[in-house]
Amino acid sequence: MTPEEFRRHGYAAIDWIADYYERLETFPVLSQAKPGDLRAALPPHPPEYGEPFEQVLADLDSLILPGITHWQHPSFFAYFPANASGPAILGDLLASGLGVQGMLWATSPAATELETHVLDWLAELLDLPARFRSDGPGGGVIQHSASDAALVAVLAALHRVSGGRTERGGVGAERYAVYTCAHTHSSVEKACRIAGLGADALRKLDVDPETMTARPDDLRALLDADRAAGITPALVVASVGATGTGAVDPVRALATAAREAGAWVHVDAAWAGVAAVAPEFRYLNDGLELADSYVTNPHKWLLTNFDCDAFWVADRAPLLGALSILPEYLRNSATESGAVTDYRDWHVPLGRRFRALKLWSVLRWYGAEGLRNHIRGHVALAQEFASWVAADERFELAAAPQLALVTFRLAAGDDATLELMRRVNESGALYLTHTVVGGAVALRFAIGSPQTEHRHVAAAWHALQASAP
Amino acid sequence: MTPEEFRRHGYAAIDWIADYYERLETFPVLSQAKPGDLRAALPPHPPEYGEPFEQVLADLDSLILPGITHWQHPSFFAYFPANASGPAILGDLLASGLGVQGMLWATSPAATELETHVLDWLAELLDLPARFRSDGPGGGVIQHSASDAALVAVLAALHRVSGGRTERGGVGAERYAVYTCAHTHSSVEKACRIAGLGADALRKLDVDPETMTARPDDLRALLDADRAAGITPALVVASVGATGTGAVDPVRALATAAREAGAWVHVDAAWAGVAAVAPEFRYLNDGLELADSYVTNPHKWLLTNFDCDAFWVADRAPLLGALSILPEYLRNSATESGAVTDYRDWHVPLGRRFRALKLWSVLRWYGAEGLRNHIRGHVALAQEFASWVAADERFELAAAPQLALVTFRLAAGDDATLELMRRVNESGALYLTHTVVGGAVALRFAIGSPQTEHRHVAAAWHALQASAP
């Protein structure tokens, strides 16, 4: 494709996206496709000769859109949001155009330095402890996802607690344990399995039915029991904004117990953490000065397209110890000088895209003020929604609302609640998903699309009321 | 950013990229930035108020470009290529615009089905064994990188060889071994460390100085010795197009030995594999019908922007066994019907971008014919470059040229060869990197940029000749 062809088709692609956002509300939120619909419509064999780009755009409308669940729809209230925004889309477009691979500082110094810089900026915007900034032994990096971040936290923890022995010897016959609350995201169990510890190494603390969070006393008891049995506590993971109900673990107390036992403290605030751009939500940061690593995802609720997972460590040495290997073909004078960061040693993949560009673009377009407004607007809408739930006797709140997440259910029980969800989702008018709270089904109403306005939340509530028995 | 603002700034971003490709040759290939240059030029604090997008584009020119090593430059001959192309950039742009998260089939059926479909297409284009297609127990998935693919191959291998015991018990006191050639990419050692086996579990087969590949007899001897010592062979990794010299391991013989020992066979053809779009290079596929998993990267040499790593398994059950966890908040009727694929269970992350869109766009824009021409053009240029090297008595080939990679050195030895590299790289006229072959330094001349023409290769050779002592 020549630069002139690119210009022409590029304008058309930009127009397609602008038009998509203008007509977003005309689509059913949840795709109504059946398994195999798209594959049956696609040619069984790849084309022998090139086709015009116009054909791809036409097929996007006729074949792909019916199979899309519209995550950017203003009435998408499922899971957690996956924010896109104009400046993020365009920042990522520019990164695609440059097509650089920033595995080493030397392979594009700006890709590395901009990433370090915007993660320092983001740490400042969120008022994170200074130990996560890059001017000391710590620093930030963009990971692919919070699951990848949980995995590297496990690896750094094992490296530190083993005194580096896992690097050559693996986990071996040594027994390690990882501790987290039962409400913590499944990524922690997945990380334990990937890291060779197995699911049995994960101790799941019961959820306190009062606070919906982990109890520090339970953690202390487990740590003591394991140490008495010759098992080494490697890592404690605390959740700030757990997936089910948005619960915020008592990080300070959990971290204190973990540190006394010599374990690494990882705080997973994948969804909620970015809310700390607004000072009134900085209670989310309580105890972070005791954490060894911290993760929050601008790609969830801070207007930055997937993938953009911000991960910080207070001390990068154990992370690099766990992950760095230097084959001959990657040796270079900048790396050997020790004056630069090579981000390939901070995560699983070697190759890396210039993802900092989209985060830079977002932080500059919105500014701190715009980011605060984005978060505050959603939280206010959630509070209003929760008040409506509380006022309708057919409904009940399943847990205290957290930020922009409301969990609720029908008083009539699980079957009625699931049937209500099925009905509204199939209508296409909105999309929400469920969880289990205190042994009973609950629906999660997660507000987060940049397109969501008061009228969409009100319409969703009316649809829920109209479908409720 | 409103749709109308997006349209305006989007056109500007498209223009910036088109202009960038038009002036690409005016830049030094290797960035001449010094550590800290960019950070010193950036504001120390994030902006309080939003800034115009024009400012981001202006800073891209003035601040970012001096710190870019231009991977798309026609005179970029370093590492392996990281291909970008118009249809890939635009396919990825459309994916950003849609902003869907395809962790489950239900969260955007088209994202999953298009991915399965284009990986079947790609398997057909490369003439891979039918067992990797999705109509049987196998199938393909897009991974973030070949390092991620190596990791999941280790995990699937451990799951299978342990009869599923690693899922709960981890690697434990059991001793497992992984086998590969010393020239294999460092990602395999990294995967062993991440998976809890440690670097000591990796057996590195010596490189045969004649063929530059692993010797099946050596593998057999190691497998036998390990089994006699009570160590379980888990995985054998064969390289097709190793990073240093592009060497192609004898996959059939290695895989036969591996299978006899019950080990998983993973074939890493990250760079070279895509060359099989042209029938004359299908010798690269020899023995693949014995492999359990196979990886090649369209993001290296098949015109598709990073990240797009194509990974296939012959049997998806051990992969899913190693990686799937189903928490309540991800339960849905499509998953429970068993009629759909949920790609979250095929890799480390949970969230996933709609990456199939860019690969679809590339396969359609170029067609099989265009892809063959892309590969053939580079291979022909490399053959000509190798003939020039062979004809100049100051130079020598360090290994037989492989596809579009030529490894060579100065007869005057390591210091002279490294000094030559330093000189041409600092000139900005071209960029190439080094490796070690047979104990001596060698330079790697890897042709792969879609922009590279005969005149760029000729100019690079003239620059090398002019700088050689």
Question: What would you note in describing this structure?
Answer:
The structure is a homodimer of 469-residue chains. Chain A has 469 residues and is of the alpha/beta class. The first copy, chain A, has a domain of 254 residues: Aspartate Aminotransferase, domain 2 (3-Layer(aba) Sandwich). Helices cover 43% and strands 12% of the residues of chain A. Chain A is built from 16 helices and 11 strands. In chain A, helix 4 packs antiparallel against helix 14, helix 6 packs across helix 8 and helix 14 packs across helix 16. The longest helix of chain A is centred in the C-terminal third of the chain and has 36 residues. Chain A is globular and about 60 Å long. Chains A and B meet through helix 1, helix 2, helix 3, helix 4 and helix 5 of A and helix 1, helix 2, helix 3, helix 4 and helix 5 of B.
| Elements of chain A, N to C (H/E) | HHHHHEHHEHEHEHEEHEHHHEEHEEH
Classify the fold: give the CATH topology of the domain at 100-353 in chain A. Aspartate Aminotransferase, domain 2
- What Rg of chain A do the Cα atoms give? 23 Å
Major sheet size, sense and barrel closure of chain A:
7 strands, mixed
Shape of chain A: globular
Percent of sequence in beta strands of chain A: 5-15%
Placed side by side, the strands forming the largest sheet of chain A appear as 1-7-6-5-4-2-3
Helices of chain A, by number, come to 16
Strand-pairing-aware structural class of chain A:
alpha/beta
Q: What's the number of extended β-strand segments of chain A?
A: 11
Runs of chain A in which pLDDT lies below 50 for 5 or more consecutive residues are: none
The greatest interface here is: A-B, 159 and 159 residues
CATH C-level category of the domain at 100-353 in chain A: Alpha Beta
